[in-house]
Amino acid sequence: MTELARWYLERDGVPTPVAMEEWLEWAAADYPGKTVGKTTIEEAEVSTVFLSLEHPRGSFYETMIFGGPHDLDQWRYRTRAEALAGHTRIVDALVRGDEP
């Protein structure tokens, strides 16, 4: 049985398994591709990032809110496109004063 890859980097927007050594170099660097979106709305920051490790249900991206009434709420996504759409949806909801 083949062991599943544990470390991923984005290649053309697609999570791609890599060797641990390559992942460690990426993780230590201030690589701009880690952040998919970052938006501040009043006292809250909505941050969407590439996690680089596969999480439950195959999610590789996460949006979290830091600060405000929804502090630490989070959503996970399988693809970069889903993450970008989710980030926009959450920001738009907060701007309108709706639940994200």
Can you give the helix content as a percent range?
A: 25-40%
What gyration radius follows from the Cα positions, in whole Å?
15 Å
Q: How are the strands of the biggest sheet laid out side by side?
A: 3-4-5-6
Mean pLDDT: 88
**Number of helical regions:** 2
Determine the strand fraction and express it as a percent band: 35-45%
N-to-C span: 42 Å
| Shape type | elongated
Structural class: alpha+beta
Low-pLDDT segments, ≥5 res: none
Tally of DSSP β-strands: 6
The main pleated sheet reads as:
4 strands, antiparallel
Order of helices and strands: EEHEEEEH
What labels describe this entry?
single chain, 100 residues, alpha+beta, 4-stranded antiparallel β-sheet, two-stranded antiparallel ribbon, 6 strands, elongated
